[in-house]
Write a structure and sequence with these properties.
The protein is α/β, with parallel strands linked by helices and 236 residues long. It is built from eight helices and 13 strands. Helix content is 28%, strand content 25%.
């Protein structure tokens, strides 16, 4: 498989700008990419697709959103790559099931079609969406997602704890997930990082390390890119 799973899309440099070198490598040779915009809730899918096209214009890849065709499955079947944007993960998964794309995307990617996801799109590459940060504004038929990797991702991972905040920290919430699901490790990806999976090998991209949550370290342990690949095992 050929996966690029980004923690975030926006940076001080602009929308997807920090990821352009990684995107260029992942999408090398692709002429047409199917974009899945369903994580957009307060943004129209037309506007979302236009934003992604503008951001990736330099890659010389035609981007067609699945909402722009009456045959989303046909578009994904014929595309050279699939892009899954960020936003609300619950809404994204519900709509992706609704139009019948979950099994098709899973099979095409396992057969070698490049997959790029950011934020919610990275959550969908996991076995489930249970480690998203999002509010469940929509009810998908199941939490089960594409299952392209054998562990969970928590995008936008942060240790931030604003003064006066009495709610759980991100580490505490992920410790709860590990306690309830001890067989499933989680990789917390800070802003500006990404996972690249190619031919069964996994690489952590970006200047920061990641944080792994599992029964041995329910509160999380900081790991480098090399350690992350070793501790989570082969991703494909």
């Amino acid at each position: 498989m050929n996966l690029l799973l980004l923690s975030n899309s926006s940076s001080d440099a602009g929308y997807l700008t920090h990821a352009l070198p990684w995107l260029r490598e992942t999408l090398a040779g692709a002429k047409r990419a199917a974009f899945i915009p369903y994580a957009g809730v307060t943004v129209t899918w037309d506007d979302y697709a236009a934003k992604v096209r503008a951001a990736l214009e330099s890659l010389d890849v035609e981007i067609v959103s699945v909402h722009e065709t009456n045959n989303p499955t046909g578009l994904v079947s014929d595309a050279d790559a699939v892009l899954v944007g960020g936003g609300n993960t619950f809404h994204l998964l519900r709509e992706t099931y609704r139009v019948g794309l979950v099994e098709l995307v899973r099979q095409r990617v396992k057969d070698g079609m490049p997959y790029v996801g950011w934020s919610a799109g990275s959550n969908l590459a996991c076995p489930s969406i249970m480690t998203t940060n999002d509010m469940p504004v929509a009810q998908p038929p199941t939490f089960e997602a594409f299952g392209l990797i054998p562990f969970q991702i928590n995008p936008h991972f942060t240790d931030a704890h604003p003064p006066g905040h009495r709610g759980e920290t991100r580490r505490q919430r992920l410790a709860e997930f590990v306690a309830a699901n001890p067989e499933m490790p989680v990789a917390g990806l800070p802003e500006g990082t990404a996972l690249r999976v190619t031919d069964g090998e996994m690489e952590l991209l970006g200047a920061s390390g990641a944080v792994v949550f599992d029964p041995a370290s329910p509160e999380g342990r900081d790991v480098s890119g090399v350690d992350l690949a070793r501790e989570l095992g082969q991703a494909a």
